[in-house]
Every structure is written in C-alpha cells, then in structure tokens.
Amino acid sequence: MHENAPLKLLTFTVQLSGSSSFPAFMVPAIGELCKSKHREDLVFPNPDGTYLRHIDMRERKSWFGSAVIDSGVPRVTPHDLRHTAASFAVSAGANVKVVQRMLGHSSAAMTLDVYAELFDDDLDGVAVALNEAVSRMNVP
Fold it and tell me: CB of 42 within 8 A of CB of 8?
C-alpha cells in the first residue's frame, strides 16, 4: 500500500476458529461487524460505503467523528490509530518485518523511516542478550 493511498482500515475475513493477524480479544467485536459483509467489503466505511477520508473530528458526519466526540478525546484520526497500532506492535516485541506487513508498507526500510525511534530499545535488548550468551559460554 502506498502511504498516500486511501486508508482501508481492515480488509480481512474473520476466522473465528482459526488463527488470524489481529489480537484474539478483537474477534467477537470484529466478527459481529463482518457477519453481513463480503470479503472485499470495508469493515469501517463512510456512510456511503467508501473509504474513510478527511474526517472532520468536530462533526458527526461519520461514525468515527461521532465516536471521537463521544469519547471526549480532543483529536484522533484513523491514521493516528494506525500509528498507535504500530507502536503497540513494536512494544509487544514485533520485529520490523512484521510491522511492515501489518501496515502494508512496501519495504522494511519504509517502516524504519517512519518508526525508527520505536526500535531504539532493541539496542539495549541486544546488548543484554549478547552479554547473557557470552556469560553462559564462560568466555573470559
């Protein structure tokens, strides 16, 4: 997916009995939303069934704008939620290739260009892991 392409939030078929690429806690809610949809349908479309675009968060012209107003969050967009999902994935230990696939980036380099600062903690983790590995080998 190109970064300037319309945001298609979710385009998957819910597999209630198999593995999926989203957290299990989402299965009931997403499953309910997908019951009457076809594989190609958007899960979260505009009222006219098209992609969410340029949503005015101060107005109730879309379900998302209404949800933002009702939540009391000052300002959030679907793209902000995309960044949040990427941050959560990195915090959960996902490597850059997994985050790349999750976001639909064309390359891991593109993902790193946007999210490099989220992987900074990996350096500390590598240092600790290397230290532990060398310690176990009793290398002077």
Answer: yes
Cα 38 to Cα 40: distance, rounded to the nearest angstrom: 6
For 42-54, how does the pLDDT look when each residue is reduced to its tens digit (9 = 90+)? 887 777 888 777 6
**What's the chain's length in residues?**
140
Residue carrying structure tokens 């076809």: 38
pTM for the model stands at 0.57
Q: Is 108 exposed, middle or buried (0-12, 13-18, 19+ CB in 10 A)?
A: middle
- Which long-range CB contacts under 8 A does 49-58 form with residues at least 24 apart? 51/6, 51/7, 51/8, 52/6, 52/7, 52/9, 52/78, 53/6, 53/7
Residue whose entry in the numeric block shows the structure tokens 């590598």: 126
* Tens digits of residue pLDDT in 12-22: 433 333 334 67
**Dihedral, CA atoms, 45, 49, 50, 56, nearest 10 degrees?**
-60
Nearest Cα to Cα of residue 16 among 28, 8, 33: 28
